[in-house]
Amino acid sequence: MNSQNDKISILIVGATGRLGSLITKHCLAQPKLLVNILVRDPQKNKELAASVEKAGGKVWKGDVTQPETLDEPLKGVHTVVSATSQFGPKTALDGQIALIDAAIRNGVKRFSPSDYAENFEKFSREELRDFGIIEFKVAVREYLKDKPLKTIHFNPGVFMDSLFEFGAKNFTYWGNPDHLYDLTSYEDTAKYVAVALTDENRAGTYNFSAVKLTAKQVADIYNQVRGANIVPRCQGTMEELKKAFEAAKNTDPYSFMVIMLGIFLVIYDDRSTFDKVHNSEFPSVKTTSIKEFLEQNPNIKLGQLATKMGSL
Q1: Which residues contact 220 (CB under 8 A, 6 or more apart)?
Q2: For position 304, what pLDDT does the model report?
Q3: Cβ burial 277-310 (10 Å sphere, 16+ → b, else e)
Q4: Between helices 256-267 and 133-144, what is the axis angle to 10°?
Q5: Cα–Cα distances in Å, from 24 out to 37, 189, 239, 277?
Q6: Is the whole-model pTM more than 0.70?
Q7: What CA–CA distance (Å, rounded) separates 74 from 61?
Q8: Which among 284, 210, 286 is positioned nearest to 32, based on CA atoms?
Q9: Whole-angstrom Cα distance, residue 249 to residue 218?
Q10: In terms of CB atoms within 10 Å, which of 176, 205, 272, 285 comes out highest?
């Protein structure tokens, strides 16, 4: 059994959020990692906090929008994993930059920003700067480039969970009906992150995709599992989506509508499909298929979780 001194000390920031809590859970299952967490409210998830402390880690109260709360939790930490909210510049941009600066001040060796994105490497920086929260991800990546930190980025494509949570009565899409979506569940993403962090020298960008499917293929699987008759429906061309985005942005540049339409401009674009994934580098991670995900989540049914956004 590894002693605490032999373990890689990590600090997960935003550990009680949806993805952060799963990353924490799976990191706690890795004997090589000493897991510490920084959260705004330790009472939000008492069970998680207790698990961290039981494993020898620390639970810190802090907030990336309050830089004075960041230094003490970062002392002696090897790797920072940011799982902070990606919505709004205060946390997704300014907060992460404050966290990066604090990490450098306190001798942190490696930093993982709150990326968790699709493939946006083929988009121009000018395009991405217009796309809502993608703009913040790009800005954080650029800020990290000349910093004395190893960086590790995780890209799971589209979260499988969100695929259904933003579903309308039918699967809807923009643009190409044969576009391939890289899909990975939150749970599987957390598994990949945890395993990747066990190598203290690992750095770079890692793309994961549990499945690669078109809207019709997803609908076919849904219909098979749920006994439904969902038919994918096109919302319009990519040019029409861009016009809808521009109109919404002119009204309120940081509204939820703008954020989601900005995301759609990436995920429905054929350039967002991964050319290469790194699943094979982590053979211990067994991914979840769409069929398995639906069977594991029987309460997820399209129509009940309908929104106005018209996503997949």
Answers
A1: none
A2: 43
A3: bbbeebeebebbebebbbeeeeebebeeeeeebb
A4: 70
A5: 8, 12, 40, 23
A6: yes
A7: 12
A8: 284
A9: 30
A10: 272
CA 234 to chain centre: 26
In whole angstroms, what is the distance from residue 104 CA to residue 53 CA? Answer: 25
| DSSP β-bridge partners for residue 181 | 213
In the predicted model, residues of the chain with pLDDT beneath 70 are 1-3, 87-89, 132-133, 166-170, 303-312
Residues 19, 31: Cα–Cα separation, whole Å: 20
Alpha carbon of 207 to those of 68, 186, 223, 278, 290: distances in Å? 34, 14, 28, 6, 18
Residue 97 vs residues 63, 66, 132, 144, 151: alpha-carbon distances, Å: 12, 12, 17, 9, 14
Quote the CA–CA distance of 35 and 67 in Å, as a whole number: 21
Rounded Cα distance, 294 and 111, in Å: 34
Place of tokens 């919404």: 248
Do the Cβ atoms of 177 and 215 come closer than 8 Å? yes
Question: Residue with structure tokens 């391939």?
Answer: 180
Residue-wise pLDDT for 157-184, tens only, equals: 999 988 877 654 557 889 999 999 999 9
Residue 33 has φ and ψ, to the nearest 5°, of -105, 135
